[in-house]
Amino acid sequence: MPPTTEMPPRPDTATLLDWLTPLYGGRGAALIMDRASASAQKHGLPAGDAGPGRPVDQSLAVLITYGDMVQAPGEVPLATLRRFLRERVPDVLPAVHVLPFYPYSSDDGFAVIDYRAVDRNLGDWSDVRALAAERELMFDLVLNHISRGSQWFANYLADADPGRDYFIEVDPATDLRAVVRPRSTPLLAEVPTARGTRHLWATFSEDQIDLDFANPAVLAEFVDIIFGYVAAGARLLRLDAVAFLWKRIGTPCIHLPETHRVIKFLRALLAGYAPQVLLVTETNVPHRENISYLTDGDEAHLAYQFALPPLLLHTLLTGDGAALREWAASLPALPPGCHFFNFTASHDGIGVRAVENILDDAQRDALVATVRERGGFVSTRAGNDGVHHPYELNIAYVSALAGDDGHAAARFLCSQAVALSLRGVPGVYFHSLVGTPNDRRGVEASGRYRSINRRRWDHAELAAKLDGEGEPARIFRGMRHLLDTRAAQPAFHPDAAQRIVDLGDHLFVVERQSLDGRQTLLAVHNLTDREVRLSTSVLPEANRWWDLVAGRSMPATIREVALAPYQVAWFSN
Fold first, then answer.
1. Measured between alpha carbons, how far is 417 from 522 in angstroms, rounded to an integer?
2. H or E element: which one contains 31?
3. Cα–Cα distance, 461 to 192 (Å, whole number)
4. Which residues of 331-365 are buried (b: 16+ CB within 10 A; e: fewer)?
5. Residue 2: pLDDT over 50
6. pLDDT attached to residue 184
7. 3-state class of 498 per DSSP?
8. At what angle do helices 216-231 and 257-273 cross, to 10 degrees?
9. Chain-centre distance for alpha carbon 231
10. What is the pLDDT of residues 490-529, one digit of tens each?
11. What Pfam families does the record point to (predicted)?
């Protein structure tokens, strides 16, 4: 990024105090602001050459990957990943979300031992900075909880600082039935301490102990961590499980006003110290709750579009696009600078909470049954009714859309094309890029359902597959082509106008128009295993139409276009 002679922005202290004071009072707010100022100076922020960063336009697409998803003998995995990206996708995935690369004790990185270190099995900070020099990086900020193996937790046990008051002690007799749970594990973890047995809040597992953000010192710690990440090259920050951040007994302890206020503070803080950095909220919850982090316009810059993966799966398994079409047509216009993060798969499974009010019970049950038939698993959560409900479908997206009808690769690519056509910023999981099927051996080795979609590849073995003629190679070539084609279309700008067109339940059709009005694009997706014919009367007015995916033009005199099973056609004027 070229240096700039402009002065860096000055933090708006009054705005920051407006967000903090109702949470912490004057003294707590002052502590955080003082610590923030010292942290900024330590990490060299605001940086005069930071600038606004890469523009958020149609060229921005994010690869989601673990740091060791591809490995080679004698090379640290972060270096292997950088080499793989340079060789295989030099241009089409300019941003990379490297899942937690810190030392951890469980949950494949999400029980962080030390936020300020790099797992030595992956590399070191120089490897992170080398990758950041070539790609825009998304860092994970695992701020809801920390590992039992952390120094903070050790200090808590020893009644020492920092850490003695970083956790949430709860009397086990307390009525916690109102708390919304994402897991079926106990909410409180029993912990022997120097002061006797204590019971600590642990939303996700007994190894992941929740942090007490009602303590201003905890937020101050994370401000310093954030500034360290920015100095190391972070362009996006993913706020992991942020919906559960604040706890107040007697409430559901999810999406509390205090949680929203903390995120708004972080956005205002970054606007002053690191305006090039974007906040991404990860909230696997019902759709309307999920987008609440975007709609005010002063909170998240991006939010994961959690309804899309299960909706797309339902659509392509049934060949019926009604639910997807109605949902997409209902999406609200977002404030400037706020975007949906559209993805179909990630390191986690396919969450079904987001479609609780979109798909009916029978449709969700059918998804569960199909996933089990195709070698996947189903994770549950404990409901307030005492019943365990499906929470997550654990299966590789490729395997979920597999079949013996000869259309598996086309069906999968159709699912990815739909996600790429929608307004927002696309996120592509590594195993979706390279067509990895279920990793049942990984589940057997780890004992965790989520391992089914977290295979680690040997670089040479993966290279041979991608250079071959099998399904992974066809998917990889198709994904590169779709990403490359999308990046060149102004109509796919994240802010470009979007209109969902109803041409029947067998097609998903979205019209996009560039910000300057010069390009109109009709993205048409055949959702079925049968040929579907499309009248050209619905195409943008033009002398000739370009099918961007097929790379060919058609005269306007053609009356009808035949779409093969699961064919994708992006028609541009």
1. 12
2. helix 13-43
3. 47
4. beebeeebbbbbbbbbbbbbbbbbbbebbeeebbe
5. no
6. 86
7. strand
8. 40
9. 22
10. 999 999 999 999 999 999 999 999 999 999 999 999 999 9
11. Alpha-amylase
Tokens 């000869």 -> residue: 406
Cβ count within 10 A of residue 450: 18
pTM (predicted TM-score): 0.95
Residue 516: count other Cβ atoms within 10 Å of its Cβ: 9
- DSSP letters of 158-199? HT-TTTTTSB-B--TTS--TTS--SSSS-SEEEEEETTEEEE
Based on the residue annotation, tell me whether 240 is a catalytic residue of this protein.
Answer: yes
Q: What is the pLDDT of residues 325-342, one digit of tens each?
A: 999 999 999 998 999 999
Residue 264: left if φ>0, alpha if ψ -120 to 50, beta else—which one? alpha
What is the rounded CA–CA span in Å between residue 355 and residue 544? Answer: 40
> Does residue 522 contact residue 511 with C-beta atoms inside 8 Å?
yes
Task: Collapse the DSSP code of 117 into the 3-class scheme (helix H, G, I; strand E, B; otherwise coil) and give the result.
Answer: coil
Among residues 140, 210, 240, 547, which one is catalytic? 240
Handedness of CA 362, 364, 367, 368 (dihedral sign): negative
Cβ atoms of residues 194 and 157 within 8 Å: yes
Tokens coding 73: 């003998």
Name residue 428's beta-bridge partners.
63
Residue 203 makes CB contacts below 8 A (sequence gap 6+) with 144, 145, 181, 182, 183, 187, 210, 241, 244
Tokens found for residue 141: 């900020």
